[in-house]
Design goal:
Elements (H helix, E strand, L loop, with lengths): L2 E2 L7 E2 L4 E5 L5 E8 L3 E7 L2 E7 L7 E7 L3 E2 L3 H8 L11 E12 L5 E10 L2 E16 L8 E12 L18 E14 L4 H6 L5
Length: 207
Amino acid sequence: MGVLSMSSTLERVGPEPGTWYLDPLHSSLIFVARYLSFGRVQGTFGQARGIVQVAEEPAESTVAVTMDAGSINTGVAARDAHLRSSDFLDSDTYPELHFRSVSVVPRRRKQNGFTLNGELTVHGKTNPVSMPAQWVGEAPDLSDPEGIYGHFFSANTQISLSDFGVGDGGPLAWGGRLVGDTIDVVLEVRLQDADPTAFLRRIGHID
């Protein structure tokens, strides 16, 4: 179930050429923000969809992912409502976040590693972003091992709220801002070879 690795060993690993789909039920699209200057708050986007076109030459593969801004979840309903408001993401005006790849570059010193370069759109503004990433393994689907196959990837990056025009909640009386400008992004992604849309509707995950 693999293609040529981007490592110097050229082992056959990773998804075969073709169309692969983000599995939102078994992927974690995580962000971590600095809060009140000293604390850290972690959240996710629970509603996401994505398509990866794996090319015969892995470096020519493409990635496109859309996340629903309204699906932000930090585990506190009142905080999530505030983050969806015009103070931050303004999800009524900008309901989606988008990532589109522009290049895939091998990382020779990282086994099965590559850098995913692309454009991230948040709050209606688009900026370049670069993500070190790695293929970490593959396995059949637990509920349908004969019909669906999956591959797992990890990636991370940092973005700045100010680059996207996202508010930071304003100044604090003791200095600093309510939310720090730098946001850590951690992605643990499962891709599968079957479109999950029908299943997600059947279980009520999407309309």
